[in-house]
Records
---
Amino acid sequence: MAKETTANGETTKPPPTPSPLRNSKFFQANLRILVTGGAGFIGSHLVDKLMENEKNEVIVADNFFTGSKDNLRKWIGHPRFELIRHDVTEPLLVEVDQIYHLACPASPIFYKYNPVKTIKTNVIGTLNMLGLAKRVGARILLTSTSEVYGDPLEHPQKEEYWGNVNPIGVRSCYDEGKRVAETLMFDYHRQHGLEIRIARIFNTYGPRMNIDDGRVVSNFIAQALRGESLTVQAPGTQTRSFCYVSDMVDGLIRLMGGDNTGPINIGNPGEFTMMELAETVKELIDPSVEVKIVENTPDDPRQRKPDITKAKQLLGWEPKVILREGLPLMEEDFRLRLGVQKK
Ligand SMILES: O=c1ccn([C@@H]2O[C@H](COP(=O)(O)OP(=O)(O)O[C@H]3OC[C@@H](O)[C@H](O)[C@H]3O)[C@@H](O)[C@H]2O)c(=O)[nH]1
């Protein structure tokens, strides 16, 4: 390789040119896509969708803390698919063109179980994935969360809202962790010119959620199918907006493919109190089950609903599946896994 001489007489080497193979693959639009957390609930549905495109090669990195190989069983052994047991808090070296960075436990009971590990996953894990993106020139999408708005004082939540977050609360490992992850994304973008995308994901539900995941939709459906009382955490008037997983995946893929960095809210703006959700699940699955009020956990946000104007305008995206259509699809999956027949 040619040597260059600097003003003070030292010789330096110019940087290596990219391998011709990488360029030829790139220009064939043959995308190599890394999905961290790809064995999880949203991750595995995203992998299904990405694998539908025959030009895509998909690599999943997952430590299987909340994800499961079972979610990916149809792809194991496929020539365009690779599964790596890997924890994102350790560096990863792979040649890819796009990174969907989802890895992190998302259910409050799981992310609070080992809070130090959760914040490491968000901070060190995101740094590692940004380092990888920088090294290989990949575009990177972070799945952030509606939890960055904390217990919001503005309703519905627009992306411009800075949030109301308790920095020392039991949820901080997750909500502050994701806030730092967003900061890191923008700092790499501004400092190193990385191509970034940030999705703020609102509550999502659908088949493959862990049955004892602890989140409200999976809890209520499993409880109704087992004939147990539905546990509404006090006061029951707190609200959430629930997005069906296929809509979520469609939003993430549009965001990755588009020109806007985000952050962009991806969620279903239909808003329900937890009491209304319990009544709906009861009516759809088993009107004879009871609803009981149980103790809540600290810092539970009282209301949450996305403003999706940006997603509509910039991504041409809006959710299609309403709650009453999505719940039965999830019920079907839970019936199969729990072995409960329809009466
Ligand atoms: O059995 C239950 C479980 C939960 N709940 C209530 O349901 C509401 C939703 O709780 P979940 O645990 O499902 O989820 P949260 O909205 O608290 O957090 C979620 O926010 C968005 C995503 O980033 C994450 O998936 C998750 O952190 C809370 O008000 C909670 O108190 C019940 O009433 N009963």
---
Amino acid sequence: MSGWRSREARAFRSAWAGLIGALRDERHMRFHAVAATVVILLGLWLEVSRTDWLWLLLAIAGVWSAELFNTAIERTVDRISTETHSLARAAKDSAAGAVLVMAIFALAVGLIVLGPPMWRMIVHA
Ligand SMILES: Nc1ncnc2c1ncn2[C@@H]1O[C@H](COP(=O)(O)OP(=O)(O)OP(=O)(O)O)[C@@H](O)[C@H]1O
């Protein structure tokens, strides 16, 4: 394999290891994985439009990315020091805030995209 290709393969393996490691070690990440699976199954069942799939996938990717950044920040702060410090608290709280923003966005997307067809299913059942 050429130098460029092996560097790219290594970078991809590291990124994949980061994702799998977060799923293994982070409870919140596993919750997001379950939520994403439920949303995808609902999307398939309700046969949502292509545009609605884009919104759902954007919401899922956004929450996963925010959670991975949050994990990276938590670990970096802990690597520097596990001592209680107001800046450590502020850094971790900001990172958690970013996840909260994305989670609220994802909830809104889920309600807007999946709410009406689910409601129709319930009413016509
Ligand atoms: N070194 C610290 N100094 C001050 N406050 C901290 C420190 N570490 C954590 N905290 C506070 O505790 C909260 C939780 O931090 P923690 O690192 O336990 O993350 P967590 O949300 O429990 O994530 P996880 O369950 O994935 O480990 C932070 O948001 C912050 O308010």
---
Amino acid sequence: MSKPLKVALLGAGVVGSQVARIILNEGPTLEARIGRRLELVGIGVRRLEAERPGIDPALLTTDLESLVARKDLDIVIELIGGIEPARTLLLTAIANGASVVSANKALLADDLGELSRAAEAKGVDLYYEAAVAGAIPIVRPLRESLVGDDITAVMGIVNGTTNYILDKMVSDGSSFDAALAEAQQLGYAEADPTADVEGHDAAAKAAILAGLAFHTEVRRDEVFCEGITGVTEDDIAAAEQMGCTIKLLAIAKLTDDDRVIVKVHPAMVANKHPLATVSGAYNAIFVNSREAGELMFLGQGAGGAPTASAVMGDVVTVARNRHRGTASHRGSSSSSRAVAPIGESEAQFYVSFDVVDRPGILARCAGIFGDHGVSLRVVQQSYLADREGADASGFAARLGVMTHLTRESDLAVVVEELRRSDFVGSDVRVLRVEGF
Ligand SMILES: NC(=O)c1ccc[n+]([C@@H]2O[C@H](COP(=O)([O-])OP(=O)(O)OC[C@H]3O[C@@H](n4cnc5c(N)ncnc54)[C@H](O)[C@@H]3O)[C@@H](O)[C@H]2O)c1
Ligand SMILES: N[C@@H](CCO)C(=O)O
Ligand code: NA
């Protein structure tokens, strides 16, 4: 009988504890699928004394460096998160001949190229399905199933925490803070939830998705990123009035001159668009490609057990490769497409602002848009005379304007000019719009 495959697990938190449970409880099933038994030989943790039901304390160690330095490991699963020591631990594991599985998008968004090259040079696997959109198979479809096609755009909801918060604010009228606390309690949020609410987690995933989709390397700092902390109750109400829902979107597309636009921002999504109905911690991703056309992937984007499902899919795949003595190389990026500046990106925008109530003001506002080649699609006016303070400020009406497709740089000039005009209030709000 062949020897078991030796597995080390780094981290036994929300995801790691679920991965440990599956490896320890589902041994015979996993063995049948792999053709070899998996043996969990060590679990790297921060605190030995924490309560870990079902886990033999003899497996635990706080010395992660020594664990990954073992020469007899077949697979190292990294679920501690963060950049260091995760990066060094993975590179050490690879250098010692282990294949690696990680869910660490923060690390992969910057170091995927280096880790891939190290794995390729050593002839071992690097798999990371759980790093993007939790349980949803999206890394493998982009890396394998669609690699014979040409992808033109990827757009989706890739952060469960923010989708949970926005959904709760809209459907239950919850406060931002209460909804965030629930998302943390349910195990969706990052160790530091700023990464979720400021869009950094989604931006890391967008970098990974863009790199995979367009066969290039995209770094996290090349992703335009705006989170949901600036989304106001007024924005939510304005979206509702326009028949839209606010979602945090990650978007990656190719420009006409073959560069990559990659961005994360809240957007008003038309209620008729399937992304508008994605609720709770669910994620969804649309892919457009030349031959396949439109594809949509939907499922749980966060949470211990759903994420462990994606990790275990990678573990079984990597274990099968080890059993056969092979590794499925990702291959270096085959294109060197550059990332285009956000100013060159195009979107529809919803711009809202207070105006004084005088003859000709609507025309003057429309003129500012027109002067910069920005075409208007919908114009709404609501009367604010009854609003507290409206008379004192002199701004008695609020305009809401939805544009046709507009370059970011042109819209920025329009907003600047509106803010400078004495007939427009200083609170000029801008939301991007999708699917309208
Ligand atoms: N929770 C989710 O829904 C989810 C989904 C997809 C991906 N991820 C990713 O999975 C990884 C783990 O996430 P999590 O939610 O399980 O986080 P977590 O904070 O619950 O677990 C991480 C564990 O690693 C331990 N740890 C951290 N640094 C350590 C070190 N240097 N030495 C020993 N132990 C250390 C922590 O004590 C903690 O128990 C992260 O990269 C995260 O981004 C999480
Ligand atoms: N914090 C992340 C976990 C999944 O990557 C989220 O909320 O989507
Ligand atoms: Na995934």
